[in-house]
Amino acid sequence: MNLYDTENQALSLPSVLRNTGKCILLLFAVTLAGFLFFHLGFTEANIITIYILGVLVISVVTSSWIYSLISSLVSVLVFNFFFTAPHFTFQAYDQGYPVTFLVMFLAAFITGSLASRLKNQARQSAQSEYRTRVLFETSQLLQQARGGQEIMAAAASQLVKLLERDVVFYLSDGEKLGEPQFFPADDRGPAPCSQSDNEKAVAAWVFQHNHQAGAATDTLSSASCLYLAIRTSQHIHGVAGIVMGEEPLDSFERSVLLSILAESALALENDRNAREKETAAILAEHEQLRANLLRSISHDLRTPLTSISGNATNLLSYGSGLNEETKTQIYTDIYDDSMWLINLVENLLSVTRIEDGQMNLNPSAQLMDEVIAEALRHINRKHTEHTITVQSQEEFLLARMDARLIIQVIINIVDNAIKYTPEGSEIRIQTKKEGEWVIVEIADNGPGIPDDAKPHVFDMFYCGANEIADSRRSLGLGLALCHSIIRAHGGDIFLSNQEPHGSIFTFTLPAEEVTLHE
Questions:
Q1: Which positions fall inside the Histidine kinase domain (predicted)?
Q2: Over the Cα atoms of the chain, what is R_g?
């Protein structure tokens, strides 16, 4: 936004014509006032004061001290021509007039110069205040921005408001510039000249050489835009282009422009560092997960594989001498161990899909009773000593879900309850509807979970410390997988205490209304 004229603009032809017109009109008005004073019988000193006042006003309304100097000289000549004897000539009979003219000129010039200086100081103060306000507003916008696109949009909006010119931004992907993003100053859209291949080539040159180019510079000056690098001491984050048109940027506008680009570069640098830290943290977490997974697999797969291998060896070596009851028990053990391995692989695959962001939901309205019944059919047959009951407050309770994944959630929670409770314990599955949600509670009357372990039960690779003696060690994937699946459905899952002892795992799913067609 071009608020103030500068010395360069003051010498442009439109400004010269405008300021010259002001000088002529004011000197004409002062001369008329002088004639009035002369006919009213005022002394020459009073008329001189009128001209000094006129020069003072001229210095205020014009844009350069040059007009004050010229007006002071012209005032002396006009006063001599009209108001000293002989009139209407530049001669003066009184020998003291030259001194009078000199004093008049100096008084007018000094007064005008002081007024011009005060005006410049006021202008500089206003510019400084405006610059501070713009930069503060820009800083706030950049702090609120998230990501390169938002930072670019915030900086561009400030530049458009400041300069009232079209702005084009090129963000860098690290090695080359991306496609231009245009921010027009009005509803006409971006200037066509700013979209040409030549303009893109100039922007690329600025990015490669880290030096300004384009309009109003000595480099590739045929371009229609002035291109500046958005840079810090370490990186060039992009290039900003300003459509110049016919009027160049004044020093104040250029100063604020450079300050905004510097703040934008710093914001982009901080965003880049934050993304790099986030990426490094994710990589470190993935490496830790991978290490934990490999360590757990190498330790925990040995038990079922050893059991399967040993039982198979016994069947091969001594199968003919074993009775049917013993064979059946061996077959059952092999089946249970293999099912444990299958369940482990399913959990591992699901965790991998979640980590890669590839878990695609196929939600549909499902009856909770049918989903629970299907899940219970997959519960490990080895744990028939537990009593599992299902309770529902409604006969037809529908929830929106991916049935395959919710079945896995129920299996994992029930298996967890079986594993951490003694034989003969009761496991209760209850469903109910509250508002727009279906509530599923899976409770047991076991020893419960210690308070210090509760915050970690949904963490990956976390295993409780109270496993019963004959239970197989878990990888700690089941509940973490349940948490991810339920959150992907838009629901929640949490743990609470069962009174007088035991635990309750509760999760929620979006409810579906039952529609009856007659």
A1: 296-513
A2: 43
